[in-house]
Amino acid sequence: MFDLDAHLLHFDDDLIVVDKPAGLLSVPGQGADRQDCLLVRVQARFPEALSVHRLDGPTSGVILLARGAEMHRRLNRDFQARTIGKRYEAVVHGHVAADSGEIDLPLGKDAERRPREKVDTVHGRPALSRYTVLERRGAGDDALTRLALKPLTGRTHQLRVHLLAIGHPIVGDPLYGTPTSVDRFGRLHLHAVEIHLFHPRTRQPVAFSCPVPF
Fold it and tell me: Is residue 172 within 8 Å of residue 160, measured between CB atoms?
């Protein structure tokens, strides 16, 4: 059972910051069986809470919500201006060769395999991700790499598709990985570690983080 107090990282008169558990939707999905989500659960305590960005259901970590329409407008403006930054960690299959790098590949809908996204060099929207290797371990089929990740754009499934495209899918990915990986690792090993921004009212820099659970 989701205990908001156990996942609440910060709240004030203007915003709410939560450590979303893996497996919980950020906002309601399509269908009666997909209405339970972080937003609904937060609104049970903070009825004025509004969503300003999302994490994929299988992804855990820091997520930001606005309190009221004005803060929603201000935070949306800051996301559009890219003054809000996010940092992730992931564990991927294989040893990533370069210690750091960028993945600059446009992404679009995979119409034949919804809800998947794909690299689409013709119709896709620009997408840019940066990575830094934190650790390499194992060998052969057991080789794994832990990465720090920074998405410079906010496309759907961006980090998951970009890492798949360079041959290093995130372990435990139920959509882009293999059944063997899902069975072995149990969950998607992707976590939003930190978000930093200018507070929507004071315009002072603030940052919120939570530890990686894997």
Answer: no
